[in-house]
């Protein structure tokens, strides 16, 4: 088996991995990026709509434009990107990876690792919908790949289950390609995606959004023929007598993303609510010298956040690999009232903190409070789908030394 070495090994070449690779190379490290697809870019390559890059590049770009900029910058900085390389196993203590590729298996060892493996879609089987498993039922990201990259249409008449951003964007995309999108179905009493996507993807195309409703049954053996939709109560239990049927040949599932941690989680701590790797504000995981960034830490709503976090993780991974690590005292971040997803999970006092919070429930008006620091940020309307972000300069972190924790709560 071939054996390679590098200073910083990046696993996964989406926005997080490419941005990590670029910043690690700019910090002076020798960098290798492994990506299972032939080219880097990750999910950006199939997101041909615009709305990317406003914060990272201060321009509105499409996904492929954002990806190709990072690809070009990586190659100018001398990052060695190896495509068609599937990382099968990582030994986080030894910082070694076993990789499968069409040219054969190889092993690569590094001084520091950045894991940036993204997220995967929640599958049909986890949704407990009755009926056979006919063709025509597919996750939204896969449908997007078929339509945008492979030039296939998944069907003629569709219903979308889940009003997260991917579902909303696919409702519009399918409509533009001539598919009749009958409705978007959402079990929550409020939409799951960004407000701008509700307006631009549904309202502008007259696609109905049915709230507090779910798909309870699918009909058809070879191919999907109909779905049964039913109203649900506040605990998502179907309400008897409220079912109706929709004649569709396609059911698009947009039931959320799950951080992709399975291949790598043996030795790394996972946050039970984020469902991704616990990292500090330097991107370092629970194992020294092993960093993680992007949607495998928590599902972020904007690629700009993912790229910014990748940048920080890449720089710190390079400093670690070059023996210039400057990590400071560390304290845990603790969730208070109405806080769901929160990143980071640990505060390193030697780096500024970029804090990301998702509310547990929507609020008309609220204040994000960092208890031990006496800092606050008010917002006029908040929903779980839109992350609240707050930057705290490292000079303001001193009170945490005595407090030994940072409590994040929303009032
Ligand atoms: C449909 C959709 C629409 C979106 N719209 C917007 C938008 O309008 N604006 C916006 O800002 N954001 C948007 N986003 C969000 C944004 O695109 C993502 O948050 C971001 O691109 C995720 O980057 P990532 O690097 O974490 O993950 P990914 O892009 O998923 O990259 C992970 C990479 O790791 C590779 N990988 C995984 N496991 C392995 C392994 N074992 N070995 C080798 N390689 C591996 C994968 O092949 C992949 O290339 C959208 C996302 C989706 C899905």
UniProtKB/TrEMBL annotation:
<dbReference type="InterPro" id="IPR051691">
    <property type="entry name" value="Metab_Enz_Cyan_OpOx_G3PDH"/>
</dbReference>
<keyword id="KW-0560">Oxidoreductase</keyword>
<dbReference type="Pfam" id="PF07992">
    <property type="entry name" value="Pyr_redox_2"/>
</dbReference>
<dbReference type="InterPro" id="IPR023753">
    <property type="entry name" value="FAD/NAD-binding_dom"/>
</dbReference>
<feature type="domain" description="FAD/NAD(P)-binding">
    <location>
        <begin position="7"/>
        <end position="297"/>
    </location>
</feature>
<dbReference type="GO" id="GO:0016491">
    <property type="term" value="F:oxidoreductase activity"/>
</dbReference>
<dbReference type="InterPro" id="IPR036188">
    <property type="entry name" value="FAD/NAD-bd_sf"/>
</dbReference>
<protein>
    <submittedName>
        <fullName>Thioredoxin reductase</fullName>
    </submittedName>
</protein>
């Amino acid at each position: 088996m071939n054996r390679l070495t590098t200073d910083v090994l990046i696993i996964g070449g989406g926005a997080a991995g490419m941005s990590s690779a670029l910043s690690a190379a700019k910090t002076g490290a020798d960098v290798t990026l492994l990506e299972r697809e032939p080219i880097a870019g990750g999910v950006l390559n199939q997101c041909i709509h615009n709305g990317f890059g406003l914060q990272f590049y201060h321009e509105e770009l499409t996904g492929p434009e954002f990806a190709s900029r990072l690809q070009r910058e990586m190659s100018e900085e001398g990052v060695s990107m190896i495509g068609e390389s599937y990382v099968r196993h990582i030994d986080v203590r030894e910082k070694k990876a076993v990789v499968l590729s069409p040219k054969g298996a190889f092993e690569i060892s590094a001084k520091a690792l950045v894991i940036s493996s993204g997220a995967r879609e929640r599958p049909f089987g986890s949704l407990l919908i009755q009926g056979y498993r006919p063709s025509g039922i597919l996750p939204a990201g896969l449908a997007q790949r078929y339509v945008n990259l492979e030039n296939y249409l998944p069907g003629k008449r569709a219903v979308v289950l889940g009003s997260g951003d991917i579902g909303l964007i696919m409702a519009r995309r399918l409509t533009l390609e001539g598919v009749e999108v009958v409705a978007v179905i959402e079990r929550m009493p409020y939409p799951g995606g960004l407000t701008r996507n509700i307006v631009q993807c549904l309202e502008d195309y007259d696609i109905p959004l049915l709230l507090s409703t779910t798909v309870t049954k699918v009909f058809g053996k070879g191919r999907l023929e109909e779905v049964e939709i039913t109203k649900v109560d506040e605990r998502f239990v179907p309400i008897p007598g409220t079912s109706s049927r929709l004649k569709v040949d396609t059911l698009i599932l947009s039931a959320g993303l799950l951080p992709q941690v399975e291949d790598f989680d043996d030795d790394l701590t996972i946050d039970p609510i984020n469902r991704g790797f616990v990292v500090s504000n330097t991107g370092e995981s629970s194992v020294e010298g092993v960093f993680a960034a992007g949607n495998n830490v928590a599902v972020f709503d904007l690629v700009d956040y993912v790229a910014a976090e990748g940048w920080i993780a890449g720089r710190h991974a390079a400093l670690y690999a070059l023996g210039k690590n400057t990590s400071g005292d560390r304290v845990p971040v603790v969730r208070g009232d109405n806080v769901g997803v929160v990143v980071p999970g640990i505060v390193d006092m030697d780096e500024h903190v970029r804090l990301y919070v998702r509310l547990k429930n929507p609020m008309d008006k609220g204040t994000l409070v960092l208890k031990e620091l006496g800092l606050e940020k008010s917002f006029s309307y908040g929903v779980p789908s839109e992350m609240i972000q707050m930057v705290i300069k490292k000079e303001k972190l001193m009170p945490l030394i005595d407090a030994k924790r940072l409590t994040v709560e929303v009032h």
